[in-house]
Description:
Blueprint: H1 2-23, E1 33-39, H2 46-61, E2 66-71, H3 82-87, E3 93-96, H4 117-120, H5 123-132, H6 135-146, E4 151-157, E5 165-167, E6 181-183, H7 186-194, E7 198-200, H8 207-212, E8 218-219, H9 224-230, E9 238-241, E10 251-256, H10 257-262, H11 265-301, E11 304-307, H12 310-330, H13 332-355, H14 359-366, H15 369-378
Helix pairs in contact: 2-11, 5-13, 6-13, 7-12, 9-11, 12-13
Amino acid sequence: MRFQLKILAAFAATTLALASHAQAPAPAAGGAKSHKFQSTWPASLTLQDNFRFFADRMDKLTGGQVKIEAMAAGQIVPPFEILDATHKKVIDGGHGISYYWVGKNKAATLFSATPAGIAGMDHMDYLGWMYEGGGLDMWWEFYTKELKLNVIAFPILPASPQALGWFKRPIKNLADFKGMKCRQTGIVAEIYQRMGMQTVNMPGGEIVPSAQRGVIDCAEWVGGVEDLRLGLPQVWKYHYTPGMHESASIGELIINTEVWKSWSPQQQEAARSATVETFMRWWVKWQRQNADAIEEMRTKHGTQILRTPPEILTAFFKAWDEIAKEESAKNPFFKRVLDSQREWASKVVPAKRFMFPPYSFAANYYWPEEVRKEAAKKAPAKN
């Protein structure tokens, strides 16, 4: 009897163990990887939504094997320190835009399609160069060999076309720029300086407080929903668009090279797919968000949305061409990348202009400018 009890007890224990094992999730091959990435953006912006979308897609595409915590600016390091922090593995990766790093090498701006879309390219033209014209290889070479950083990058954030910016008073021509102190970043700041503007570099989260204190007279951020969420319509009323400084700018996802190598080939492929999907899915949603934001700016905040004087846009092109020529003469890598981009653009841009109807052609037929202006006049202004 005692022997039978022992057998029954052993059988019960085995059954319980098997049941527990069946209910528990199977251990992941190699174990799940958890990483801390940080952006340069305030948490409230849709730019950060882009980052969070990527993290969610990586989680799902890898079956939970790669988990990324998408942190906002300042949670671990200051916004403009994410590149060095990724290199040193203080963080595992980041989300920003490469023109922030022109202080290290001006070629950084070329990997953000800034300024002017690089020789007239739009977002898709630029992605063509990136994925089909050798651009991604040059980008990785730039970080790992030119800057000697343990960093690779992918395009992920098509945050453009962007507005010229916000001003405390109207601007009618280039002369109105003279003496104005404006928040600008990257090589764009240098271009505007040549055009007579005084520029101040600061993260997005500092723009509104600086404007309220009178430290700056104008600012460029993004436009549309980003500017609305940042609070710019509450401090200035004159908003000019378009701007050629970021007509097709593209932000980056940066990853520490050791982190990248720790991922399996399948996980790396998941990252490639997730960046492309994030680019497209976020972008199409963003266009509707911008449309709603523009309407709210006009009707709720009394924003005057005005067309940028053509003289300013043309002067911008000329100043950029001068800087690009000067930099090409002293920076071989800059010249090699720019030459590659212009060679791609020389084929794609003219052909696309030939094949594609002007956007304004159908837009003006179905949504005439006069109708839009009349609707804006009738909309009730709210304080």
